[in-house]
């Protein structure tokens, strides 16, 4: 599985939005790469990998080298906060495989008309496949793996839409799932991941959705809060995400949620060794310079504890 590259029309829109320039991009990539090589606490990456990761981060920061440096540092430092994910990220583990049908999580194979990737996160409404705390941590591993795949593609895109389908959530999940764990993972991801979130779309929201939202609101930036939209019918969703590219479950022409979730899991497992190696790349805090600060704990205000 893969995501179709950006079209010429979408590329033109992106260039206008962030003042993108090929020559300027290459210069900035070299600047950040040289900076990374001089940071004793950062993992040293192969040149091609570094180019792609820096490229994607520059896109997400509208070509800001300083914000890109901060994101890269946070990207590798945050892994100390979640060792149970990054140091045990093997996609063939039983808990990871079992989570695939319980929580469907994958990108659509095409971008939207405005050049955004669409990430699906859908809780299965089948009560026999009710998700648990173990499935949530497995989901985090899958999310990291999917992000790794996107970084390795090094493709142009404007940002991402996240589509939350909450049809599989029930009231008992309020006490059974690790909401604050998810909040902390989301908080660090918001700071560390390269792609800008252009919209958070919620469908099939339960009556207790406000309770869930209030857990996450403290870590969301004001701009992000304004990008949350709740759709009560799929017709309104089609204004942002073309019906044609959506899964059949939402009236689209694409594969079902289950089919896509399983197909992407196969893709992740096909590069198992690379993903395991990626999980080992993190900062060496013993070598961090005195003028460099690891603020991962402060991002969610509890110094890295749970």
Automatic annotation (TrEMBL):
InterPro entries reported in the protein's UniProt record: CRAL-TRIO_dom (IPR001251), CRAL-TRIO_dom_sf (IPR036865), CRAL/TRIO_N_dom_sf (IPR036273)
Name this protein carries in UniProt: CRAL-TRIO domain-containing protein
Alphabetical list of Gene3D superfamilies matching this protein: CRAL-TRIO lipid binding domain
One GO cellular component, as annotated: membrane
SUPFAM superfamilies assigned to the protein according to its UniProt record, in alphabetical order: CRAL/TRIO domain, CRAL/TRIO N-terminal domain
GO molecular function: phosphatidylinositol bisphosphate binding
Domain annotation CRAL-TRIO: ranges: 162-258
A Pfam family: CRAL_TRIO
Cited PROSITE patterns: CRAL_TRIO
